[in-house]
Amino acid sequence: MLLKRICFLFTLTALSIIVKAQDISAYNVVWDSQSKNSSESMPLGGGDIGCNVWVENNDLIFYISRSGTFDENSSMLKLGRVRITLPNNPFKNNFRQELKLKEGYIEIAGEHNTLVKLWVEVFKPVIHVSITSNDKFKAKVIFENWRTEDRSLATDERHQAYGYSNTTPDKIGVFTRKDTISPGKSSLVWYHRDRNDEMIIDREAVQQHLGAVKGQLWNPMKDLIFGGELLAPGMKFTGTMDSIYVASKYRGWVYENTQAVNAQNIDIVLHTSHSPTNAGWLQGLQQEMKISAATSEKWNKTKQWWAQYWDHSHIYINQDKKGTNDKGREIGRNYNVFRYQLGCNAFGEYPTKFNGGLFVFDADFVKGEYKNRVTPDFRRWGGGSFTAQNQRLVYWPMLKSGDFDLMKPQFDFYARALKNAELRSKIYWGHEGAAFTEQVENFGLPAGHTYERLWGTDPFKPRSDSSSTRVLKNVKGEEMKFTDYGFLTNVWVVDHYDGQLEFSKMILDYQLYSGADIGRYMPFITSAVKFFDQHFQYWSKKLNGYPLDADGKLIMYPGTGLETYKGATNSTSTIAGMKTVLTGLLDLPQKYGTPQQRAYWQAVLKRLPEIATREKDGKTVISPAKSWNGKSINTELPQLYPVFPYHLYGVGLPNLQMAIDTWHHGADNKNQYSIVSWHPDPIYVADLGLTDEAKDLTTQKLSDAKYRYPTFWGPGLDWAPDHNWGGSGMIALQEMMMQTVGKKIYLLPAWPKDWDAEVKLHAPYNTTIEATIKDGKVQKLKVTPASRAKDVTVMPPHGS
C-alpha cells in the first residue's frame, strides 16, 4: 500500500497564507486540589534550574536542582528543599495551581486573594517567589536539608553513583558528604564542596589501568563547589527544627516575618564554581547577589525567552475537541507540555539527563524496592553518568523543533571529555581515536562497575590480568586469548561504542538544519570515525595477521549489535553509523576538513562492508550483523537502526519494503517490541510510513503518564520522570508529520486523517514548515524560505 501511495505523491508549488496557530496557553496544566506528595509535583525551571513545586497539607514545597551539581562520587545532588507556610491556611478550602507555559511560571491562588508566583530567571541562576494577599500574614520559610551528616551509601543506594553500582560498603566506602549551612539574620548560605581526595575519577583511573596518566585526565569535579543563598527580606532566623519527609530525616532552618505584611518576596541565588577555597566560592556568590532581586526587566527578558522558545515550533492536534477525551488532542498537548521540561535546561553545563532531568522526586513513589531506604538525591542509572542510547532520544527531537541552542550541552559533553576518551585508545591499543563506551562518567571514562563488576577483589588496584583476559575468534573460528585492559567485563556494554557515531550524526544534522558552525565539535566527530577504522584493523591484524579482508574491507570484530547481539562481526548499527557519518562529513562545506582529511574519510567509506541481510519467515530482512555469538540478550532492534536514526531506509528511499519486512519479521524475540521508556518502536513505524501502527504506538507512548503531571512518564525501564520516554514520543510524532531525504521534504508520510493539526517544524537548510491539516489534507502551507516550496511533497490522506 505504501509503495502505491508514493507513486501518487503530488508537489505543492504555490504558497498559502498560514492561519494563526493557537496560543500555547491552551495547554496550561491546572490543578484545583492540593497534592499528596512530591510525585504530584509540577515542574518549574529556566536556564539550567529545575524545581518540583507542589502544595501538601497547606504547605508550599519545592525541590531545587541544577545542571552539573555532581559530588565526588558523580552523584547528582539536589540543592535542597524549601517549605513555605502561611498561618491562615489560604489553600485549605480554595486552591488553584497553574503552570503558565507561555511565560514559564507557576501561579498558586487561595483565599483572601492570596497569590503566589514562582519563576526562574533564564539568564541568571535565580529563583523568585512572591506572595501577596489582601489579608496581612506572617509567613514562615524553611530551608530543608537532609545532608547534615556524612552518609555512607548502602549497596542498593549506590545506583545513584552509578560507577559504584552494586559494590558493598565493606569493600569500598562511598559517602555523600554533608553540606555547609550558615544561617544569617534574614538570609542563609549553603554549599556542598567536593573532596579532592575521594574522587571517583581517581579510583576509576587506577582500576582501569590509567593510574600512570591520571594527571593527564580532565576532572570536572576537582574543586567543585555548589550551593547558594536564600534571601528573605523582612524575615528573621528563628532557629532550626528536625523532622522527616517521606523517609528522609532533615533539618530545617526557619525564617519568619517580624511583622504582618501583605506581600513577601523570597529570592534564591544559586552559584556553582571551581574554587580551591571556600572563600573563592563565597566571593563568586556575592557577585551573583548584587543582581539577585526580581525586576520587571528580568521578568520581561524571561518572558521574552519563553515566547521565542514557543515560537520555534509546535504540533497542535484536534484543537476543536477541547473538553473531550479525544486521544489526538491529548497526544498533541503532551508533546508540547513535555517540551517545556526540555526548555528548562536550555543553558545547562551538562545535558538533560534521560532518567529524570532536573525533576526527580522522592524514590519512594517511583519503585517500591527503594521505599524508606534512600534520600531525595537518589535516581537509578546515576546522576553523573550518561547512557548514550538513552540520552540520544532526549536530543533528536530538538532538530525538528528548532531548539538548536538546547543541543549544545549534549555536544559539549563529548567535546570536553574527548581527550580522556582518546587517551584510553592510546594506552590500551596504541591507536588513535576516541573510545567513548555506552555508559560513561561525566569525564568520559567507563562507569567503574561496567569495567569490572563489583570492582574485583581489590577495588584500589588495577584490574587483574585474569579479569582482563578475553577470548576472541579469528576468521577461521579458532579461539585466541588476549589480555585487554581496555575491554569492559559488563556483558551488556562490552565493545559498545556506537553512541559516539550517533551523536556525531546528530551534530552533522544540527549543522545541516541550522547552518551553525560545528568547528568546535569536528575533533570529536573525526576522532569517533578514526577509532572504529583503526580499532577493527588493530584486532584483525592480531587475530588474522592482516588488517583488512581480501576485498580491502574492514572486518568489524569484536563488535556488538548494541546491547543485544554480542560478539558481532559487521554489526549493522555500526556500519550504518559509519556510513552516514562519513557521508555527512564529505557533504560538509569545504571549510570543514583538509584535503588530506577528506581523502581519508573517502577511503574509510570504501572500506566499510555491506549491511548484512537474512531470510526470516520467507522474507529478506536486515540482519543485526553478519554474525554474532548466541541469542539476543536484550530488547533492542539494531537491525532497524538503518531506519532510525540513520535513515538509510524509509519513505522516499530505496528498498523500503525490505525495511518494512524487517519490522514485521526481523526480530528474534517478542520482547524486542515495546513502547515503554526508551523503546523507539513508534519512530520505526513512522519512518516506514506505517500510519495505523504509528498512530497506535505513538498514542500509547504519549498518553498521560500515571503520575499527576501528564508528562512525568515512567518508571518503566529507567526512572521517573522518564525523559527518553517523552523524547522518543516527540520524535515519532514529528516523523509522522514530516520526513526529509536530502533536500526533499515529505509532509504527512504517516499522519492519520482523523488528526487535524496545526504544525510548525524545522527542516534542513534553515527551512521551516507551517501547515494546517484537515481531514488528512494540507489546507494551508507556508514554507520559509519560499524557494524551498518546490522541495515539498504532500502525501495523500491515508490510515484510519
Automatic annotation (TrEMBL):
* UniProt domain DUF5703: residue ranges: 30-315
Organism expressing this protein natively: Mucilaginibacter mali
> What is the designated name of this protein?
DUF5703 domain-containing protein
- Which Pfam families does the entry mention? DUF5703_N
Does the UniProt entry include the keyword Disulfide bond? no
What GO terms describe the biological role, i.e. biological process, of this protein?
Answer: carbohydrate metabolic process
Residues folding into a coiled coil are: none
Which range is the signal sequence, renumbered to this chain?
A: 1-21
Name the keywords, alphabetized: Signal
